[in-house]
Inverse folding.
């Protein structure tokens, strides 16, 4: 059982967690919490677009990808959009507590709404657009599930198609999209990208443990036509459950030392 650092009268029990070596975020004990998909998304984004100066994170939740990018790319200016009320409240709190408001703007709204897209486009175009859409269709929802967690997991406000559509509207001509999602969403990503004039250039498959199936994938897309998309993979734990060199690279990316065996 996690021990709360404080109990917010509206958000309930919160933990106070390190996101990077220098950034801390509040998370709800019973709600949606950042995980490896957020860290890998930020990692891929920084590797692919290390000189990005204008960044937008779609559906940014409590701010894990958005704030990690702000920390990793200190010369950038960032915009995040989030619709779910509890997640947005945490996002606002986490931006403020890390003194990032001067260069991180946040918007409370649905990334599919025309008014939100217009506002994002007016502040763009963006060198880098990131997103971690929900993985599951509404048919998988559980009535008793915490609403914040449900909206982070279930496609109530659209999946990869909605994220790519908005990203295409706000992306600079030479910009990069980094999208994390269910590995099984590959056909949906490809089908959505083509009519938008987007082209996948790389897919990173993430394996939780040696010999286990792919847990999730991260796609990198641009407007540039390339001959063929490439695929690589990383594994987070070995057969004995110990962190791999890939996991150590992710920890180093966040400013942490490698875990001891």
């Amino acid at each position: 059982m996690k021990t709360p650092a404080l109990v917010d009268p509206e958000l309930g029990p919160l933990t106070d967690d390190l996101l990077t070596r220098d950034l801390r975020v509040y998370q709800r004990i019973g709600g949606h919490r950042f995980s490896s998909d957020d860290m890998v998304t930020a990692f891929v984004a920084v590797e692919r677009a290390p000189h990005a100066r204008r960044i937008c994170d779609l559906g940014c939740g409590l701010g894990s990808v958005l704030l990690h990018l702000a920390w990793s790319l200190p010369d950038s200016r960032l915009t995040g959009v989030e619709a779910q009320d509890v997640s947005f409240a945490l996002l606002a709190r986490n931006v403020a507590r890390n003194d990032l408001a001067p260069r991180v703007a946040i918007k409370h709204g649905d990334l599919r709404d025309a008014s939100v897209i217009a506002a994002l486009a007016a502040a763009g175009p963006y060198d880098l657009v990131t997103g971690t859409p929900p993985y599951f269709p509404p048919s998988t929802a559980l009535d008793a599930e915490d609403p914040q967690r449900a909206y982070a997991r279930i496609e109530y406000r659209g999946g990869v198609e909605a994220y790519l559509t908005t990203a295409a509207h706000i992306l600079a001509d030479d910009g990069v999209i980094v999208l994390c999602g269910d590995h099984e969403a590959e056909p949906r990503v490809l089908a959505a990208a083509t009519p938008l004039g987007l082209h996948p250039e790389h897919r990173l498959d993430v394996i939780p443990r040696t010999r286990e199936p792919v847990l999730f994938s991260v796609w990198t897309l641009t407007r540039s036509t390339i001959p063929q998309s490439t695929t690589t993979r990383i594994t987070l734990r070995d057969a004995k459950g110990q962190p791999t060199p890939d996991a150590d690279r992710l920890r180093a990316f966040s400013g942490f030392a490698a875990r001891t065996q």
